[in-house]
Amino acid sequence: MLKWFASLAVLAVFSASGAMASGGGEHKLKHEHWHFDGVFGTYDKAAAQRGFQIYQEVCSACHGLKYVAFYNLADEGAPFYDPEFPNSNESPVVKALAKQFTITDGPDDSGDMFDRPGLTSDKLPSPFANDMAAKASNGGALPPDLSLITRARHDGSNYVYSLLTGYIDTPHGMEIAAGMNYNPMFAGGDQIAMAQPLYEGSVEYTDGTEASVEQMAKDVTEFLTWAADPKMEQRKRTGWMVMIYLFLLSLLLYGSYRAVWRDVEH
Amino acid sequence: MSGHSRYDPKTGIEKWLDARLPIIRLGVDTLIFPSPRNLNYWWTFGAILAVMLVSQLITGIILAMHYVPHPDHAFDAIQHINRDVNYGWLLQPMHAVGASMMFLAAYIHMFRGIYYGSAKNPREMIWIVGMVIYLLMMAAGFMGYVLPWGQMSIWGAIVITNLFSAIPPEAAGTSVTQWLWGGFSVDGPTLNRFFSLHYLLPFLIVAMVMLHVWALHIPSNNNPTGISIKTKADTLDFHPYYTVKDAFAIVVFLMIFSWFLFFMPDSMGHPDNLIPANPLSTPAHIVPEWYYLPFYAMLRAVPDKLLGVLTMFGAIAILFVLPWLDTSKVRSMRYRPLAKLFFFIFVLACLGLGWCGAKLPSDLVFATGVDEAGNAVGFSFVWLSRILTVYYFAFFFPILPILGWVEKPKPRPASIEASVLAHAKGDD
Q1: Average pLDDT across chain B, whole number
Q2: Which end of chain A is more exposed for a tag (fewer CB within 10 A), N or C?
Q3: Residue A231's pLDDT is what?
Q4: What local confidence, expressed as pLDDT, does residue B173 receive?
Q5: Tell me: the pLDDT tens digits for B305-343?
Q6: How many CB atoms sit inside 10 A of residue B24's CB?
Q7: Is A9 in contact with B79 (Cβ distance < 8 A)?
Q8: What is the pLDDT of residue A24?
Q9: Could A264 and B236 be called an inter-chain contact, meaning their C-beta atoms sit closer than 8 Å?
């Protein structure tokens, strides 16, 4: 009876968290197979690099990535990690990238702000100075910062992929508000202010991969999932070591328990 | 401590210290005291909770070194911890998932107490101090969830603090919310005081745990038979017999904890809390953390706000008088077939209320048809939560008091020793 009760309690915890997780959009999300899925999952570095290209050439026109610094892109577990450069600030990719940006810094000794080339320690610059400027340029809609987007939505990675590939023809008779676009995957309703961002061949991949809408959506999702959870690989690796350690310890302790209780009827 | 001290100082320095500050004696007598020899694994959750409390304290103190309790910086600070602080990616989820794990262990610990009659004479004070710990945990958990200053943080804080506006204004109701907020809405001053209190409460919990353990040492542990200790043959020393058993259970529990921590750290939280707090944009569903869901369901089950708040707090208040509501002379429900049945329904009701709390009250449990507009109609969650709320209270009153008078318990073993020996021979 008590064992039955125990399994019930555990079940309830799982179903309660499941119940909360299932409160998302009305429409069924597409479920992709992801390289980072599961307890052994890692990021597909090539896909994440292509995804960064999509972010830079398409998304970054409106969306920031304010929690990611340039050097983060070459950290362990990151898209541009290179074991030759354990200090990611020395990564040539990161250095070259940071230099392309102009950052306003200051004030200097005379109290003036000044422009300087980006440093590897700078965060990726956001496209707008503030939320009001972002809204003013986007018809009143605020393009969210993407640093956490795949963790800030139910089933986030599948959500981002579904949204980016979810622009379909408006159903007959449906009124679309001015400046809005039809996308049944959008969590805030069927109409989204963001116009379809990805079209066949929107970017030309440097590695020769064919830039279909699905491919680009998948790549940028891989990249954004990394951006939202940059320590995932480290966490899972540590997790396995902890699990193995605890398992061995539990065997030792169970043995100790049996030894201590050996002569006791119980 | 009850009974004779088992400590015998041998070296000179021990004797010198023992005459002045008998702290080693205190430690020895706390660990080596006679415990029933038949404690099962449900009795390991006390030790598990102690470990979780220490884990929360250590991770929390380190997190506080990097956290900034300011509306403009709190959300960024959590990201800073997760991304930049050494091992911050481990500490922050460890604290957040750890809170869930602590509540899981606490709920099992409480259900065990009810089932085996551990709350009853002579252990009423252990139970009451335990309920105080539970209340403090609820307050600490709630304030802790506000600190990341995400959407669920601020809106959870708005919903919960607004409960106190249910107190009529003539009874100083409005000023209670203003006093809680430190202003006229949930804002910076609220965050700052919640941080202060969130840091304070764990130390109050530690103090209460000491009282809990002290009170436990007076009558010693209850046990699965509920029969009191009669002779020395009924007992084993807590150390090493139960220290080693608890240690094994702790490590098994830590494996479950680790699985969530390393492989699904977001599963216990809500994605909306990774959207920065915005007082102008209300989330579609405001849901508390899973461990408050049953009470949230009760709150929403009652149409009147004040009565809803009273129902919710009443659900916790009634636990304090449980030792006197359970009138049966038999402690353990192992020998009480009817009580056992009602207890399992009670557990299901609690889980069901948690389910209701995660849903919108208007959501349907099952549909029975469609109305004229084509919308599904049927049995809604608000009605399920009403039925379950009624059962929750009915279990404590009148079911438990009446059962104590009408139920005929099954025969009980003569002693703990007798039950253990019968069990060992396979008779039980």
Answers
A1: 95
A2: N
A3: 98
A4: 62
A5: 999 999 999 999 999 999 999 999 999 999 999 999 999
A6: 13
A7: no
A8: 40
A9: yes
Domain ranges of chain A: 31-64+142-173+186-249
Contact: A151, B274; criterion CB under 8 Å: yes
Q: Is the pLDDT of residue A8 over 70?
A: no
Torsion of CA B227, B232, B237, B238, to 10 degrees: 20
Count of beta carbons in the 10 Å neighbourhood of residue A115: 9
* Superfamily of chain region A31-64+142-173+186-249: Cytochrome c-like domain (1.10.760.10)
Answer yes or no: do A67 and B83 touch at CB < 8 A.
yes
The least confident of A13-17, A41-45, B37-41, B84-88 is A13-17
Instruction: Let me know: does B335 contact B411? Beta carbons within 8 Å.
Output: yes
Residue B266 with chain A: CB contacts under 8 Å:
151
Nearest chain A Cα distance for residue B242, angstroms: 9
Closest-CA residue of B relative to A252 is B248
Reply yes or no on whether the pLDDT at A14 is more than 50.
no
Chain A residue whose CA is closest to B343? A5
Helices (H) and strands (E) in chain A, counts: 7, 4
Nearest CB neighbour to B241, from listed A72, A239, A260: A260
Q: ipTM for the complex?
A: 0.93
Task: Measure the CA–CA gap between B9 and B19, rounded to whole angstroms.
Answer: 10
- Residue A18 tokens read as 């499941």
